[in-house]
Amino acid sequence: MSDELAIEANGLAKSYRDVRVLAGVDLRVPDGSVFALLGPNGAGKTTMVRILSTLTRADDGRARVAGFDVVRDRHEVRRRISLTGQFAALDAAQTGAENLRMMGRLSRLPRAAARQRADELLQQFDLTSAGRRRVGTYSGGMRRRLDLAASLVGRPSVIFLDEPSTGLDPQSRQTMWQVIEGLAASGVTVFLTTQYLEEADQLCDRVAIIDDGAIVAQGTPEQLKSQLGHDVVSMELDGADVDATTAAIGQLDGLERVVDGADTLALYLEDGPGSIAEIVRRLDGAQIRVGAISVARPSLDDVFLRATGRRLEGRDEREHERGARQEQTA
User: Fold this and answer.
1) What values do phi and psi take at 192, rounded to 5?
2) Which end of the chain is more exposed for a tag (fewer CB within 10 A), N or C?
3) Hey, is 74 helix, strand or coil?
């Protein structure tokens, strides 16, 4: 990872009709790094990616990708980036090799160069033996790897990955993580959105959490977790009233903060293990029954919960975009 910036955004703002999706977002992504943008559905992740990949224009603010302005130099930006969505954009009737050669020809590579590049990518993604098979016979993990390989035919310097491991089994997800790590090691900048906080923790040099169109936390995973500085006691409410449960627990020694999710309660404590017995005693005294109670060191999930006040759930901002397009064409 270098000190040069692959992506730089200043004050990006975007609204669809009367819905504000981005509210002045600033981002800095170093060259050769893996960066994750995390946030609930509807927080602005997809819109951010669309602006940075030149598919949507911001209402305000500026951004540079691979050294070029995303509006003024959008054609130069497009020559240097690749965008891979959640669903594989492959021709199931063709073989893996044929898909890659077709992408090479669409990228204006000579026929021989397209064939050579296809062979290189099949080997890089451990698909050489499957290269002669129709893509329709591939497993989900193989299709995802081939889709990523296709996005690299043109040797982009920045690649945007939208939910790269969604729907993959654990083994395929691990393979995908290895591929992403390999891309960063080769100097490619990876900008990903993900619903898996473990994925961001495992892969990323830096993460940013976006909520309601604004960045609410950013840094390295370790920096963000260390800022909590406390154990996290989590309890499943199992239908128990949040306010009544919080009131029953009351003020504990070393309690920094209480955060309630959709069906959980998280308590940030200096001594989590030493506090559980007292928590249970107080709940029993108030005749409140909850589900499992656990204690752990802070994770990115705890960082996310603290920053946004909820888990990864909600409405997707793509609904705003679809509504805006429908209104324009009505």
Assistant:
1) -125, 150
2) C
3) helix
**CA dist., res. 192 & res. 323, Å (int):** 25
pLDDT one-digit tens code per residue, 287-304: 999 999 998 887 888 888
Name residue 312's beta-bridge partners.
none
CA atoms within 13 A on the CB side of 178: 11
Structural domains in the chain, CATH included, are: 5-224 (3.40.50.300), 230-297 (3.30.70.100)
pTM for this prediction: 0.73
* CA-based nearest residue to 319, from 4, 43, 124: 43
Which one-letter amino acid corresponds to residue 115? Answer: R
The alpha carbon torsion through 78, 116, 142, 44 (nearest 10 deg) reads -10
| Other Cβ atoms closer than 10 A to 97 | 20
> From residue 117, how far is each of 32, 154, 253 by CA, in Å?
22, 9, 62
* CB atoms near residue 169 (< 10 Å): 12
